[in-house]
Amino acid sequence: MSVLSNLEKFETDASTNQRIITLIDKLKEVRRLEREEYLYILNNTSQKELEYLRKSADSIRLENYGTSVYMRGLIEFSNFCTRSCNYCGIRRQNQNIDRYRLDKDTILSCCEEGYNLGYRTFVLQSGEDKYFSDDIICDIVNSIKKKFPDTAVTLSIGEKSKESYQRYFDSGADRYLLRHETASRKLYEHLHPNDMSFDTRMQCLQDLKEIGYQVGCGFMVNSPTQTNEDLVEDLLFIEKLQPHMVGIGPYLSHSETPFSGLESGNLLQTITMVSLVRLILPDVLLPSTTALGTLNSKGREEALKSGANVVMPNLSPTEHREKYEIYENKICTGDEAAHCRGCIETRIIFAGYEVDMSVGHHKTRGINNGMVRS
Ligand code: SAH
């Protein structure tokens, strides 16, 4: 077993930055740091300190979740999108893409295949596709919950009104993923066109929390022009929002976007952010993302050893997989669901952890103002 749990084994030497070690210990203890302290860590961490940070994050993850890695079955059900995010390959302006959407029966058969493979959470993700009205989404969610009552449904379909979010929740959706992308207003505006608003994004996350969802925010690491100061904003925002899940992945370039040709993100910096978030939120659900696996063949394993405890293998029909190309060279696009299930399990075990096929709710299970979803 290669679980990095034994902190006693960590030995500092003359080259170790003691201030960073002290700050990591402080974060582990009090779960928050000052802006300048986070910045100091990001500006000065090298390999030795990163090793300590990762071991600390792993020990907190082991305390809270043991070696369990929760499996979520991802269904990318439409790549139509009305938005024009400057980084994203499925943006509306991309003409060089074969658009598809799955109908309800196809989505249900993806769930069935997943259910038979043991999945108990389905994540339904898409571009912002107007075809899927609230009625249609509610019907899909309701049908999944009726057919597979012991599962959780996660939606990741973008910005909607509070009324729409409430309707999906009332139809049985348990969780909602909406990455904030960056908590820096200036960077948000650089990453998005004028018709998208930082305040709306933040309001959506607030609405989702108030309704009682288990809420996931998240951000890209090393997106164009992003600075360490911007990443500190993400950490401060996460301290404040207290989300149940946080999706963190490197920015990856796509040639059919305005950011074409700009450099993709960095593995070590992404892992650093994963570990810091684990220390801020000891019981957060933290995916080891496909983007990390795309950036580096061992990226997902490295994230698991740095505090991540969720993976989201793909259940979408293989014939459509490569059309959901939010970034280029996305991995696993040719693999059948059963193959993905097996492949990820091998990786998880090899990294020293174990697959957990249970529904894997967050510990607080959407507790909000005293209300607990039954
Ligand atoms: N329409 C949904 C789903 C968007 S795709 C929504 O708005 O939530 C899911 C995530 O993929 C995005 O939130 C973004 O963080 C990430 N993503 C998109 N393009 C990317 C790129 N080029 N590199 C890395 N991540 C990207």
Automatic annotation (TrEMBL):
Domain Radical SAM core: 67-292
Origin superkingdom: Bacteria
Cofactor(s) required for function per UniProt: [4Fe-4S] cluster
Pfam family, one: Radical_SAM
Record's keyword terms, sorted: 4Fe-4S, Iron, Iron-sulfur, Metal-binding, S-adenosyl-L-methionine
Cofactor: record remark: Binds 1 [4Fe-4S] cluster. The cluster is coordinated with 3 cysteines and an exchangeable S-adenosyl-L-methionine.
Residues annotated for [4Fe-4S] cluster binding in this entry: C81, C85, C88
NCBIfam families the UniProt entry points to: rSAM_HydE
PANTHER family, A to Z: 3-METHYLORNITHINE SYNTHASE (PTHR43726), BIOTIN SYNTHASE (PTHR43726:SF1)
Protein name, as recorded: [FeFe] hydrogenase H-cluster radical SAM maturase HydE
Source species of the chain: Candidatus Xianfuyuplasma coldseepsis
